[in-house]
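Dear colleague,

Thank you for sharing your sequence with our group. We've completed the structure prediction you requested, and as agreed, I am returning the results in plain text so they can be pasted directly into your records. Please verify that the sequence below matches your submission; if there's any discrepancy, let me know and we will rerun it promptly.
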Amino acid sequence: MKIKGNVIVLTGGKLDSKSAKTAHGLLRGSERFNVVSIVDKKFSGKHVDIDKHGKIKFTNEKTNIKIFKDLKSFLKHSIKVDYCVIGVASAGGILPEEMREDVILALNNNISIVNGLHSILNQDSQLKKIADNNNVKIHDVRMSKSRDSLSFWSGKIYNVKSPKIVVLGTDCGLGKRTTAKLVVEELEKNDISSDMIYTGQTGWMQGWDYGFIFDSTLNDFVSGELERSIYQCYKDKNPDFILIEGQAALRNPSGPCGSEFLISANVDGVILQHSPKRKHFDGWEHVDAIMPSLESEIDLIKSYGKDVIAITLNTQGMTDQEKIYHKNLINTDFGIPVFLPIDEGMDGIVEILKNKYDN
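Please find the predicted structure tokens below.
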């Protein structure tokens, strides 16, 4: 069965936080799901507005996406949806207790669940029984694949001729996937074929053709699954560029990640996403886990033999003056092009890529 259709997205009062990154990703565009409505008590009664760069706003002006306080109030409007998506990434990947009632209500109203959390809801006896009784499904996107269906790294990545660009970050939750998507869209707008390799649950929900879910893959097979996804994309489509969604950060102590992209994927260049205002690794302020400097991160990437070809900034919490200040300062300090993806888009990245890789 092909999982595709209209969806209601649950965000549990976290719609304006980075915890709702799955919801944000779907709102910014998906080939798999069309977001009809959001359930979020904090913004109940408002509507979602999205500009051309993907900046999300909550407004009193009517748009196609209305926000409801709970699923019960949504159901009163008799709006047809195919799935109910859990649109948050919670601490520890556990289903937030405040969402459980809405999940049960969706199942009892013959709406299947799409779950991107680490918690496997098909293993929740109550939810599984309700789903079976109503002949609907719980789709656990992060269910690990069986070992015999996984690929080990083989070296065939060296046969991929399309330039491969990974979007890495200096920390988690900076918008790496969104930046990769914006780069693909900018290339396509200029009649340059490209594709994105997803590595997380939201990328799958957006409907990208190639990828895998990094953090639900057995460690020994991460490099192989990454290679397989890139190679298959190249063989099927032979795009001019392949963008790769990075995960976590090279030096995030709670989940260091990134060398697989640099080495196993044999990337040709790095776009580095950074937040100038973030001083500690996200969520680890209490242990004083200070983020290394941007300069040292660039040097670390260089030590792998890879170049940072552009820097993109997460500007959450910045004033307009701060955005421009940091953009100009970083560009001056490092001589590397700097972009504000959500504020200004990625205009100019095409020329950078063409000049560097047009052979």
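Summary note from our side: The chain has two domains: 5-140, 149-357.

Kind regards,
the structure core
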